[in-house]
Design goal:
Layout (H helix, E strand, L loop, with lengths): L1 H19 L7 H13 L8 H28 L4 H17 L4 H16 L4 H37 L1
Helix pairs in contact: 1-2, 2-3, 2-6, 3-6, 4-5, 5-6
Length: 159
C-alpha cells in the first residue's frame, strides 16, 4: 500500500514539475526529481546512487541556468535590468490573462515596455525584448528536456 502511495505522489511531483517548467514560480526540474525519488523509495523500484546524484546535479544545474540564460539573452541584446524585470512581469501577466500564448508573448512585450520606460528607442527596446524572449525560450526548453527525461526514467523503471 505504501508503494502505491509513493508512486501516486511521484506522478504528482512529475506533473507539478512539468508545469513548473513553464511557470516561473515553480522550479520544475527539482520538483520532477522529487518524483523520481518517490519511486526510488518504493520496495520494488530502485535507482543507483550514481544515477540519483547525477540527476540531482542536472536538475539543480538546469534550474540555476534557467535563472542565468534569460538575463544573459537580454544583456546580449543590450537590455537593462528594467528589461529583465519587464520580461518576468510580462511572463506572469501573459500567463494569467492570455494563456497559453501569453507565456510566449509576455516576456517579449514586458522587456520592450521595460526598456521604453528606461528611455531606450523603439529599436533598442525591440532588441532587448527579443533577447529576453530567446533567453526565456532557451531556459524553458532546457527545463522541459530535463523534466521530460526524468519522467521517461520514472516510467521506464515503473514498467
Amino acid at each position: 500500500m505504501l508503494d502505491i502511495i509513493l508512486i501516486v505522489f511521484g506522478i504528482l511531483f512529475l506533473l507539478v514539475g512539468l508545469i513548473g517548467c513553464i511557470l516561473p514560480v515553480l522550479p520544475g526540474p527539482p520538483i520532477s526529481y522529487f518524483g523520481l525519488l518517490m519511486l526510488h523509495f518504493t520496495d520494488k523500484h530502485q535507482f543507483s546512487t550514481d544515477f540519483l546524484i547525477m540527476w540531482a546535479v542536472i536538475a539543480i544545474g538546469v534550474t540555476i541556468l534557467d535563472n542565468v540564460v534569460p538575463v544573459w539573452g537580454t544583456k546580449r541584446y543590450g537590455g537593462s535590468k528594467k528589461a529583465i524585470w519587464g520580461s518576468v512581469l510580462g511572463l506572469i501577466v501573459g500567463l494569467i490573462f492570455f494563456p497559453p500564448f501569453g507565456i510566449i508573448i509576455g516576456p517579449f512585450v514586458g522587456a520592450v515596455i521595460g526598456e521604453m520606460i528606461a528611455g531606450k528607442s523603439g529599436y533598442d527596446a525591440f532588441l532587448s525584448g527579443f533577447g529576453a524572449f530567446m533567453g526565456f525560450l532557451g531556459g524553458t526548453i532546457l527545463k522541459l528536456i530535463t523534466s521530460g527525461l526524468i519522467i521517461f526514467f520514472f516510467f521506464k523503471e515503473l514498467f
